[in-house]
Amino acid sequence: xxxxxxxxxxxxxxxxxxxxxxxxxxxxxxxxxxxxxxxxxxxxxxxxxxxxxxxxxxxxxxxxxxxxxxxxxxxxxxxxxxxxxxxxxxxxxxxxxxxxxxxxxxxxxxxxxxxxxxxxxxxxxxxxxxxxxxxxxxxxx
Length: 141
Fold this sequence. Notes:
Blueprint: H1 6-16, E1 40-44, H2 49-60, H3 70-80, E2 91-95, E3 99-106, E4 109-116, E5 126-134
Antiparallel strand pairs: 1-5, 2-3, 3-4, 4-5
């Protein structure tokens, strides 16, 4: 199941009308995880800033309040990618004013989701990157 993210991410990007990413985005790294002997895959998600601004306005008007919680945004993105993880299994392991790293564990391995505040410093969270550190416990079809 080595490409479990490839098809859903491409499909997600195609369906969401993704645009370019913000060159001024924070470049901080996720917490270090022991990866020796394990395969690490990282996917950068494209962000449509016009869509993010629209979502921010909706949030400001009282809609989609879950976008104000980094773990909720990471969880929603994982569900969109076809990973059936519980919200309770999503833990914020690093947090700054600009970004958070949310970690969960699935059959494929440890999954870190980076979410960032792209519209404004106190704004909604946006999923920008997924890192999978495989455990070798992949399900066989």
